[in-house]
Amino acid sequence: MSIWWSLHLRREAASVPLARRLLIGTMETAGVDPDVSYDLSVALSEACANAVEHGGDGAPAGCSEAYRVTAYLDGEKCRIEVADSGPGFSVAQDLRPAHSDAEHGRGLCLIRELADHVHIGGKPGRGGTVVSFDKMLKWKRDPSLLTA
């Protein structure tokens, strides 16, 4: 089975739970194991929160109001991409581990812990950051799509 969707979201806090709920609903409908769905939904929430908070600072006028989330469930893997129009950042410098009691700065490290593979980079020829991550899927015994 192959499912994919893409959202163009405003850089507002309310967009984060919207993307998370859509991902969880998609995975539940496809029959993905709830533990895997939870891990990916937390990672997605962190990536979206970063796009909302940092995804427009320094971007050209008119480019900073939105960000894009794309999810692909294809075969045994789920791949998620979150792309914004912010100024980007230095991966080496900005992925330093945060203190355990820090309120900010743990999102990218958390994504790395929850996903199997993570890539963080800029958009070729444009400003912005793309955070993409994937995870191998496990399945429930009775996926709801098989009963249709």
N- to C-terminal distance: 14 Å
The share of residues in extended strands comes to 25-35%
Mean pLDDT: 84
Number of strands: 5
Please state the oligomeric state of the protein chains shown.
single chain
User: How do the helices and strands follow one another from N- to C-terminus?
Assistant: EHHEEHHEE
Global geometry? globular
Number of helices: 4
Largest sheet: 5 strands, antiparallel
Question: Overview of this structure, please?
Answer:
The chain is an alpha+beta fold. It is built from four helices and five strands, in the order βααββααββ. The chain has helices at 15-30, 34-54, 91-94, 107-114; strands at 2-10, 66-74, 77-83, 117-122, 129-136. It has a five-stranded antiparallel beta sheet with strand order 1-2-3-5-4, covered by helices on one side. The radius of gyration is 16 Å and the shape is globular. The two termini are 14 Å apart.
Quick structural overview:
The chain is of the alpha+beta class and 148 residues long. The protein has helices spanning 15-30, 34-54, 91-94, 107-114, and strands at residues 2-10, 66-74, 77-83, 117-122, 129-136.
Itemize the secondary structure elements and their pairings.
Blueprint: E1 2-10, H1 15-30, H2 34-54, E2 66-74, E3 77-83, H3 91-94, H4 107-114, E4 117-122, E5 129-136
Helix pairs in contact: 1-2, 2-4
